[in-house]
Amino acid sequence: MGLRDNRTTGVVAAPLSREFSGTRGRPRFNWTAAAMIGPAVLALLLIGIYPLIQAVSTSFKLYQITKPYLGTPWVGLDNYQTVLKDSLFWSALGRTGLFFLLTVPLQVALGIGVALLLTATRWKGPAAVTRVLLVLPIATTPTVVGLIGRLVYNRDFGVLNWMLDLVGLGPVSWLGSARAAMFTIALTDTWQWMPFVALVALSGLTSVPPDIVEASKLETSSWWETFRNVQLPYLLPGLTAVLIIRTADILKLFDMVFVLTRGGPGVSTELVSVYVQRVGFRVFDLGVASAQAVLLLILCNVLAQAYIRLFYREVEV
Amino acid sequence: MSSVTMETTTSKPGSLAAQRARGRPGIRAKDVLQLLAIVLLAGFILAPIYWMVSTALKTANETFAVPPVFIFQPTAEHFRTVFSEGAVLPSLLNSLIVASASTLLAVILGTPAAYALARFEFRGKSNLWFWIISNRFISPIVVALPFFLLARDLKLLDKQLALILAYLTFNVPLVIWLCIDQFRSIPRDVDQAALVDGAGLWRVFLTITLPLAIPGVVVSAILCFVFSWNEFLFALILTRSEARTAPVEAANFMTGFGVRWGAMMATGTLIVLPVVVFAALVSRHLVRGLTMGAVK
Q1: Which domain holds residue A151?
Q2: Domain total for chain A?
Q3: Are residues B30 and B103 in the same domain?
């Protein structure tokens, strides 16, 4: 029964509950099992937890690589105070939020549209080919996406300005002004991640029993009614997952933006990861950068908790 | 015609026959628009990749041409340059070594752990589980700073080993998560029977369960390889020249005067091509990997 739930909602939590409810006949935990889990846990502890502890301890120290004569004295909460008062940090967070608003709603709307188009169309062949194509942007190395951006957005010989020119617009300085650059990185991100939303929505749509869709089409002629009342409920779990994953990934986003704009012009596209990287590795103020990283970590953890609560609730038996 | 109508009324409304009967009438304006939309979508996805590959095959004059050149005599000049001079080839080799080694290590560490997590009950298991999944959400920049300090102290800066270990932070959770799913799908009776016969747990795992789980292991390995191959931030911070990976080398084309677009795009093509092929192979599982199994 659990399995059916899982199929219809597209969420995997249900099989877990099935496993966990049937504990009878399970071998008890023993040393061999511990030896199987041990190395992985140890590795994750060493490369995951240890650096975090070091990040926290660095965040309480004065640690400027360019000024070794200062040493690394303990400074308590000074770095955190610096960060909390640092308007650049807050504006980087604000920009990251703006970037989220520019990209995610658009990607969700387009992704659902694409999924609906590919499932409803009579052109099964082209739709199947396009479905495979959707994987390409997701797999494309983000660094290379940034480099391609440098090429196609080029003001002088970029192919995009030529296309605009064909319809009598432009030329646009895609990376030249603060506002345009923000729009440009959002557009680039949409190229790469809208397909992800579309694939998630597609898997949600395929889990809708066709009978219900047909029945609803008999009752109402408006596709919106059908979508809202019949299909959308099946999409919601997947879209919630997308929302949290995209939030986490936008907090992580570094490579594409770094290559395309270096956070510029000025600081206009300096998202939070790019800013922390600059403070840490171009200004070399590791203490302050660590404090920023720790604050960021808290944010990441909140997201992880939300995600786990929503999608793996059944595990807690 | 009448038989079709009969079919629609007698069979269930959602049946394939009904759908086919509905779709059978001639092509309408809506259908044309849908085809147009699909073609536009495919074009939108392919255009940047096409432009990268075609620029890699153009001469410099053709690259700068306005209006852009669409029909040209392809030249292998840039690929030859990239192969003969400079650091691109070594960086691709570094990427290959780092991604393969990290993937292999993640599989070696991750599969037994996934097996034990799928088969055994113990206290604190769900906490362990949550912790493993939550690694998906940690921003690399958070651990990048301490990694840098640690690698500096251990003299691992600019060494492949530093990256191989760093990439385990995302590879091990991925393998564990995807393989737990796989092990669960194998009936427990299979290994139970062997255990009753007196075989040790490791032997059962290695000779019976693991071979059955190979499809899942391969999928997780491919995804690990793709994510490691594409990684940039750790590679930027932890390498200088010797261990520099391909994405960092490619980004390096943007520094200095006079960007060599052709060579840069040739490098980009060499980086993207293998992962795109890999990703297409496991396209059905890509979403599962990206969402840690929450969406199938």
Answers
A1: 78-315
A2: 1
A3: no
> Which of B143, B226, B261 is closest, CB to CB, to A139?
B226
SS3 of residue A232 by DSSP: helix
Tell me if residue A64 falls in helix, strand or coil: strand
Q: Does B266 lie in the same domain as B156?
A: yes
Amino acid residing at B267: T
- The residue range of the domain holding B238 is 84-290
Helix, strand or coil for residue B31?
A: helix
> What is the distance, to the nearest Å, from the Cα of residue A114 to the centroid of all Cα atoms in its chain?
19
End-to-end CA distance of chain A: 17
Residues 6+ apart with CB under 8 A from B125: B117
B266 pLDDT above the threshold of 80: yes
Same-domain pairing of B32 and B136: no
Mean pLDDT throughout B267-290?
A: 89
Domain membership of residue B12 (yes or no) is no
Which residues of chain A are within 8 Å of residue B39 when distances are taken between CB atoms? 126
Do B160 and B120 belong to one domain?
A: yes
Judged by CB atoms closer than 8 Å, whether chains meet at B296 and A151 is answered as: no
10-residue block means of pLDDT along chain A (317 residues)? 38 39 56 89 88 89 85 86 91 95 96 94 92 94 96 90 87 90 96 96 90 85 86 90 90 94 91 92 88 90 85 54
Q: Is residue A1 part of a domain?
A: no
Q: Is residue A115 part of a domain?
A: yes
If you count them, how many residues does chain B have? 296
For residue B31, which residues of chain A lie inside 8 Å, CB to CB?
A: 121-123
Using alpha carbons, list the distances in angstroms from residue A56 to A31, A49, A209, A274, B25.
34, 11, 50, 20, 67
Same domain, B131 and B218: yes
Q: Choose among A282, A277, A291: nearest CA to A75.
A: A291
Taken in order B117, B123, B127, B132, the sign of the CA dihedral is: negative
Q: Do B13 and A211 touch (CB under 8 A)?
A: yes
Residues in chain A with CB shorter than 8 Å from the CB of B113 are 36-37, 39-41
Closest of A310, A304, A134 to residue A236, by C-alpha: A310
Tell me the nearest-neighbour CA distance from A259 into chain B, angstroms: 6
What CATH number did the domain enclosing A184 receive?
1.10.3720.10
B51 and B184 inside one domain:
no
Pair (B56, B88) in one structural domain: no
Q: Residue B251 domain-assigned?
A: yes
**Interchain contact, B141 vs A159, CB within 8 Å:** no
How far is C-alpha B204 from the chain's CA centre? 30
Q: Which residues have CB under 8 Å from B273's CB, separation 6+? A: none
Same domain as B122, residue B259: yes
Is B56 within 8 Å of B265 (Cβ atoms)?
A: yes
Q: ipTM of the assembly?
A: 0.86
- How close, in Å, is residue B144 to chain A by CA atoms? 8
* H-run or E-run covering B223: helix B214-230
Task: Return the higher-pLDDT residue of A28 and B4.
Answer: A28
> DSSP assignment, residue A74?
B
Could you give the dihedral angle defined by the CA atoms of residues A181, A183, A185 and A189, in that order, rounded to the nearest 10 degrees?
A: 180
Domains: count for chain B: 2
Phi then psi for residue A103, to 5 deg, are: -100, -55
Distance CA B87, CA B76 (A): 18
B121 forms bridges with which residues in the sheet? A28
CATH number at residue B95: 1.10.3720.10
